[in-house]
Amino acid sequence: AASFPWPIVVQVISARPRPAEIGWKSTAKMHSVGQTARPAWFTPREGTSLRTSGLASLTPRNGCGAPVSYVRADPAGGVASAGKAGELALAGGVTSRRGLQDDIIVGVPRTPDHLTDVQRRHRQKGGPGELETHWGLKSLKLPDPGEGYGMKSNKGEDVAQNFRSGQMLGVAEYMNSCSEAVFFTTKREPLGKSYLRGHVLPPSVNATDYKGFGKATERSDHTSKDCIFPRGVAPDSVEVRAQYKKTHGNTEPGERIGLDYEYPKAISDNPLFRFGAADPFTDRGGQGFGAKSALTMDGGEIPLGVPKTLLVKDSLAHFQQISGENFASSRHIMQAEGMKHLPPGHSHGKASTSGNHTAGQLIRGMYPVEQQMPDLDLGKCTMVGRRNFETDEPLGVPSVRYDKKAPPHEKRSVANSTNFGDDVSAGTLIKPTRFQFKGVNSEDFQLRRAAPELESILQGAGCRIEQDQLGAIIGRACDLHGDEDDRASLEAVMAAVTEWTQSQN
């Protein structure tokens, strides 16, 4: 093995045949039968590869006298074989396993080339492109179906057969058309054209510029819109509207229809008069007993009375009281006779088998004092050499970065999601200001500005105030802040303008 510059991986079978079981004559006999009957180690090796590699002097330890060219010897006996050990088929059907002869290499077993009919039908998997067929139907020859099984149905001709029955092609169709041409209906009623009546019109009628028969329609300058809603027409007078209201029932939009009835004075002078029959059951105030009489409809013949008392046997009343469901009381279960013999304090059902521990004890627990104490490492560091101490320095990164200087809004990146504490709150979305959708916030009215900027804002807003009066208004707005700053906010300027307007009026 040390003489080879490359590793060799071979499959070695340790099956040594005994001299009494195999000899050269038996192996020669197997060779004469055919190549398929030879064992795997009987493959010829007549090439010069062994002599080139320096292994021509190796002699196999087979003990059967076979030539070296017909035996594959293991040149590296010290290398362990890989995979599962194979089998060696000897002469006479004897199979010897590994352990007797370890220097003979057995080839990989091949798939049988020829299978019997029974083996082919019982194969579980088919070859490439082979349809999966049940093993009982592989060799079965199905009979010719013929005309089919069962009784034929008495079915008439279908639509396709009817169409094909009168179909003609070629010469037959031409001869049939010549025969049909002699009929009057074929000439007057051609297929795909209108009825031919034999009328011959003059050439002027067939001209493209012919205007047609009859008298031309006289068109007016008035359109249908002018007819429906004419313009320049005086409105109807009161007498005309009253006449149309009486004859046609025409009223103005939203106008109430008045019948102009003339009632007697007994009706027109009484504001409480109502048509219809009056309720005979009324109280002193003239109000009816509608709801009250409906609730006491079973009271008897007299309105709002009580029903007549009927005397019956008490057995029916007792039965109704026991079997029925009485108001504000439980239903009688009819077990009073059996409960007479029970001792006082008797309870039905099976006694509880629960223990002495209540639910409160189970919730609160019954641990000893030592187990109820907090753990020693609760809020403390258990590592040796470290101690816990409090510090004023916050740990971590805050959500709002007040510790960093916020850059101006116009210089921030669109992708910058850092919150510096100056972002717009949700209040502008929930309750926007008057000028929120124009890009003007409430803080803009509270921002203090210089006098030239305030003058430009007022002039842009349309305020026509003289220059000296405008300076006085801005000075008054600066005084409203209560400090010595010469800048003022728009709120203060608007208050100063209001004072100046009131003083002018």
Pattern of helices and strands:
HHEEHHHHHHHHHHHHHHHHH
Compute the number of strand runs. 2
Q: Indicate the proportion of strand residues.
A: under 5%
Integer average pLDDT: 75
Q: Gap between N and C termini, in Å?
A: 125 Å
Major beta sheet, strand line-up: 1-2
Low-confidence blocks of residues: 1-43, 55-71, 86-99
Helix content: 25-40%
Structure description:
Residues 401-413 have a biased composition (Basic and acidic residues). Residues 428-501 form the EFHB C-terminal EF-hand domain. This is EFHB C-terminal EF-hand domain-containing protein. It comes from Polarella glacialis. The protein is mainly α and 505 residues long. Among the domains are: 1-110, no CATH class; 445-504. 27% of the residues lie in helices and 1% in strands. It is built from 19 helices and 2 strands. Strands 1-2 form a two-stranded antiparallel sheet. Helix 18 (467-480) crosses helix 19 (490-504). It is extended, with a radius of gyration of 61 Å.
